Amino acid sequence: MRSLLWSAVVLGLALAPLQPAVADDDIGGVSCLSGSLHLRYTPGLTFTEKTIRVRGSGDLDSCQSARHPRITRGVVRVRATVTGKCPGPIDPASAKVTISWNDGTRTTITESAFNREGKTLHVEGDVAAGVFKGGVARADGRATGNFIAAAAACLTGGFTRSSITVDRFSVGS
């Protein structure tokens, strides 16, 4: 009888549908509807192409995540090395963006690429570590400030600071 019972259990397990495995690209995700970023360039950008260190900080607000509902905002830190000149192009050689979320988790983004047209910019990067690992981060924003003042800075020692308004940030697959 016991043998018959175990046979039924084994057969039941064998016929039971398997739960789907969590796919690598099923990372949850987050979406933020506003933010800001303040960047510093050392040495400043001039009309001669050179390697420049970029450091920055900012914030993300109005964030939502179905898988991480406590996330509502984040603090952003940027460290990058770029090759560029005024008025561009600027090509990232290496970049690391760390977001410390208000729920205590972190996201580290590397392998960034960006595109700038006028004051509008779009950035994409791979989430290499932390919450949302394996996802792709995307941000759309616009540079604030005056192009005439920026051009004057390029002529007189270098453009050393910029500010960006983040219109949308998200991480998805």
Quick recap of the structure?
The protein has 173 residues and is mainly beta. It has one domain (27-172). The chain is 13% helix and 58% strand.
Instruction: Report the principal-axis shape.
Output: elongated
Number of spatially distinct domains: 1
Our estimate of the beta-strand percent is over 45%
Largest sheet: 8 strands, antiparallel, barrel
User: Which structural class fits the helix and strand makeup?
Assistant: mainly beta
Q: How are the strands ordered across the major sheet?
A: 1-2-3-4-5-6-7-8
Average pLDDT works out at: 81
Binned, the helix content reads 10-25%
Specify the number of helices.
2
Supply Rg: 23 Å
Which spans of ≥5 residues are poorly predicted at pLDDT below 50? 1-25
The number of distinct β-strands equals 8
Write the element-wise H/E pattern from the N-terminal end onward: HEEEEEEEHE
Cα distance spanning the termini: 51 Å
